[in-house]
Structure to design on (630 residues):
C-alpha cells in the first residue's frame, strides 16, 4: 500500500477523533453537567451567602449574656438597576439623597456586574417597611444576617465586640473570610472566634425580573447549609457581675472574683464600662470613636491591663516567702516605733505598734515588720545580696507575679517584678543592699501587679499553696468541653503549714477590733482580707482590698481596686464585702444605706487639660517614697 495514502487515513482519523472528543465534551458540559449553566445564568440566578448565627454565650447559671438578632444587608447589582423613585427609596431606608448617591457610586466603582453591599445592618423594623416595595427597585435585594445583642448590657470588656474584616485579616485567613464577613475583635469574641463563628452556607436562587425568588436552582443540589457557631458557658455569675458594675459606677478601677477550687472567674468588672450594644448597628463607628476619645478610657480592660504597685497586700506574699526560707516564724517579733530605719532614712508606718509578731503584722498592716523581714531575706540570708534577691524574686514569681496567667482573653499584661540585673545596672554594681529597694517590702517601688494577679494571690492563699489558671469560659458547646490547661494545678512552692499564721492575721483584719477592715465584716461569714492604700504619683492614692471567704472551704477570692479614692478600708473593702455576701448568701443583710453610700459616690478624678510639655531636667531616680498606709 502506498505510504502516502496510509498517512492520509491516520491524519483523518486523528481529526475525526478530536472532533468526537470535543462534541462529547460540549454535550457533557451543556446537557449532562449543569454546573456551568449556573455560572452562565447570573442574570436569572443569584448566589446568596448564608451567614451562620454566632454561638450564644451564657453565664455559669445558663442565663444569656449574648444572643443574636436578625438584621439585613441591602445588596445591589448596578447593571440591573432601572430608573425608580429615589426619594421614596431614601425615605424607606431613612437615608439622605446624598447618602444614596455616594453608596451607588461606590457600588458602580467596585463592579457593575457583581453584587455589593449598599446599606449594612438594616433593622427588622426598617426592613419590614422596605420589603413591601422591594419589587419597585430592580437590582436591589436583601441578604439576611445576624448581629449581637446584649440583653443586660453588662460585661462589655469581658465579652468584647465583633467587626467587619479588613484586607489584612482576609489575607491572613487563607481565604476563610471574605469581604463583608465579621470577626471577633476583642474579649471572648476574639479569643474563641474559631468556635463562635460557625460555617457559612450558600443558596443558589432563581429570581424573576423583579428580583423575586422563584425557588432553588436544581432543587438545591448546589446549596450548602450554614452551621451555627458553638455556644459557650462562661464562668461569670450574671447577678454578681451586675452588682459589681453597680457598685463601681462613677469610679475608676476593677473587680476580679475567682472560685479558688477551679480558677473560674465569677466577676470581671472594668470601670468605667460601656453598653456593649453601642458596638452593634449602623452607628457603631461613631460610638467607637466616642468611647475611644473618652478621657476615662472605658475600652481599657483594667483587670488584665492596668498595673499597680500592690501596696500592703504584698505583705502576705513576703510573709509566706520569708517563712518558707526559714527566716521567720509566727513567733518572730519586731518592735515598731513608728517606722523602719535603714541608714539615715526611715520608711514610715502609720502607727507606733510596739512589739509585733507575724499574725499581728498582717492584722495591723505594720510596715516596720516587713522592713525588717525584707532586710533579713536580702541582707542576712547567708549568701551574697544579688543571689539572695534572685532567690526572693523567683519565689515571688511562683505566685504569678511578673508573668501572664494566660487568661482566655487577648492582650493580658504580665506586670512587673524587677530582676537583680535591673538594680545592678541602676546602682552601677552589685554592692546594693535591701535599703536600695526597701519599698518592695511593702508592695511599693518598681512592682506592677494587675487586679487579676491580685485576685489570684488570694486564690492561692485560700487553697493554701496552689491555684488553677484563671479563666472566663467554663465549658464549650453542648458537650460541655473544658480546656485541659484550666484543670492543671499550679503549686507555688510554699508549704501548707506556713499559711496558718497569715490567714489568722487576715481574718483579724476583718473580724476583730483594731483590724484595718473591721467595718466590712460580714454577718455570719468569716472573710479573710487585707487592705492596701497604694501611692499614686499622679493624684490621690488608690484604694485596694483583697480577700477570700469563707475561711474554711473557701468559695470566692476577690480583689477590688478603686483608683484615686484613698484608704483601702474606705471604698474597696466595703465593695468586696457586699459582693462576697451576695455570692455566698444570694442576698445582702446589711442596711440599704451601706450599699447606697457606695453606689451614689462619684470618685472620678477631674479631667486634666493638656498642657505644653515642660523642659526636661535631671531626675533623682534613686528617690524612694517612704510613707505607705495600710
Amino acid at each position: 500500500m502506498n505510504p502516502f495514502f496510509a498517512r492520509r487515513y491516520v491524519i483523518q482519523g486523528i481529526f475525526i477523533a478530536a472532533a468526537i472528543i470535543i462534541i462529547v465534551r460540549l454535550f457533557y458540559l451543556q446537557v449532562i453537567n449543569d454546573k456551568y449553566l449556573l455560572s452562565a445564568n447570573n442574570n436569572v440566578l443569584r448566589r446568596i451567602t448564608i451567614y451562620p448565627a454566632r454561638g450564644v454565650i451564657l453565664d455559669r447559671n445558663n442565663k444569656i449574656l449574648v444572643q443574636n438578632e436578625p438584621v439585613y444587608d441591602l445588596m445591589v447589582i448596578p447593571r440591573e438597576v432601572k430608573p425608580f423613585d429615589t426619594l421614596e427609596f431614601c425615605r424607606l431606608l431613612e437615608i439622605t439623597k446624598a447618602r444614596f448617591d455616594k453608596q451607588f457610586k461606590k457600588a458602580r466603582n467596585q463592579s457593575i456586574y457583581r453584587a455589593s453591599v449598599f446599606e449594612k445592618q438594616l433593622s427588622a423594623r426598617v426592613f419590614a417597611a422596605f420589603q413591601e416595595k422591594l419589587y419597585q427597585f430592580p437590582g436591589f435585594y436583601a441578604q439576611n444576617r445576624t448581629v449581637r445583642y446584649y440583653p443586660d448590657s453588662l460585661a462589655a470588656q469581658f465579652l468584647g465586640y465583633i467587626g467587619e474584616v479588613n484586607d489584612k485579616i482576609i489575607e491572613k485567613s487563607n481565604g476563610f473570610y471574605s469581604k463583608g464577613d465579621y470577626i471577633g475583635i476583642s474579649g471572648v469574641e476574639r479569643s474563641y472566634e474559631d468556635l463562635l463563628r460557625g460555617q457559612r452556607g450558600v443558596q443558589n436562587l432563581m429570581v424573576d425580573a423583579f428580583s423575586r425568588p422563584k425557588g432553588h436552582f436544581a432543587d438545591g443540589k448546589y446549596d450548602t447549609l450554614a452551621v451555627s457557631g458553638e455556644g459557650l458557658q462562661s464562668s461569670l455569675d450574671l447577678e454578681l457581675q451586675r452588682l459589681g458594675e453597680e457598685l463601681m459606677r462613677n469610679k475608676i478601677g476593677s473587680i476580679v472574683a475567682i472560685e479558688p477550687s477551679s480558677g473560674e472567674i465569677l466577676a470581671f468588672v472594668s470601670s468605667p464600662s460601656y453598653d456593649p450594644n453601642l458596638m452593634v448597628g449602623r452607628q457603631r463607628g461613631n460610638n467607637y470613636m466616642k468611647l475611644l476619645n473618652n478621657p476615662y478610657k472605658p475600652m481599657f480592660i483594667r483587670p488584665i491591663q492596668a498595673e499597680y504597685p500592690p501596696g500592703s497586700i504584698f505583705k502576705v506574699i513576703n510573709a509566706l516567702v520569708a517563712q518558707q526560707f526559714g527566716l521567720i516564724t509566727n513567733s518572730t517579733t519586731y518592735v515598731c516605733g513608728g517606722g523602719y530605719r535603714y541608714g539615715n532614712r526611715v520608711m514610715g508606718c502609720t502607727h507606733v505598734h510596739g512589739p509585733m509578731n507575724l499574725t499581728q503584722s498582717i492584722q495591723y498592716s505594720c510596715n516596720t515588720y516587713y522592713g525588717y523581714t525584707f532586710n533579713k531575706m536580702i541582707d542576712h540570708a547567708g549568701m551574697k545580696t544579688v543571689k539572695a534577691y534572685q532567690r526572693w524574686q523567683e519565689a515571688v514569681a511562683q505566685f504569678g507575679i511578673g508573668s501572664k496567667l494566660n487568661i482566655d482573653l487577648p492582650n493580658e499584661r504580665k506586670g512587673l517584678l524587677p530582676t537583680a540585673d535591673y538594680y545592678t545596672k541602676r546602682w552601677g554594681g552589685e554592692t546594693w543592699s535591701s535599703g536600695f529597694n526597701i519599698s518592695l517590702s511593702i508592695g511599693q517601688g518598681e512592682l506592677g501587679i494587675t487586679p487579676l494577679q491580685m485576685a489570684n494571690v488570694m486564690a492561692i492563699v485560700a487553697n493554701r499553696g496552689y491555684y488553677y489558671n484563671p479563666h472566663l469560659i467554663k465549658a464549650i458547646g453542648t458537650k460541655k468541653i473544658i480546656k485541659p490547661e484550666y484543670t492543671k494545678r499550679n503549686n507555688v512552692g510554699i508549704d501548707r503549714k506556713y499559711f496558718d499564721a497569715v490567714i489568722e492575721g487576715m481574718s483579724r483584719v476583718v473580724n476583730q477590733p483594731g483590724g484595718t477592715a473591721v467595718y466590712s465584716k460580714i454577718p455570719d461569714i468569716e472573710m479573710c482580707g487585707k487592705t492596701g492604700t497604694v501611692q499614686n504619683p499622679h493624684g490621690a492614692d488608690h484604694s485596694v482590698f483583697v480577700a477570700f471567704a469563707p475561711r474554711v472551704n473557701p468559695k470566692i477570692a476577690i480583689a477590688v481596686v478603686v483608683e484615686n479614692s484613698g484608704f483601702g478600708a474606705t471604698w474597696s473593702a466595703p465593695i468586696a464585702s457586699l459582693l462576697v455576701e451576695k455570692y455566698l448568701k444570694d442576698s445582702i443583710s446589711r442596711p440599704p444605706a451601706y450599699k447606697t453610700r457606695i453606689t451614689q459616690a462619684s470618685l472620678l478624678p477631674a479631667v486634666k487639660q493638656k498642657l505644653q510639655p515642660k523642659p526636661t531636667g535631671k531626675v533623682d531616680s534613686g528617690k524612694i517614697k517612704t510613707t505607705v498606709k495600710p
About this structure: Confidence is low (pLDDT under 50) at residues 36-42, 615-630. The two ends are 117 Å apart (CA to CA). The chain has two domains: 46-234, 238-599.
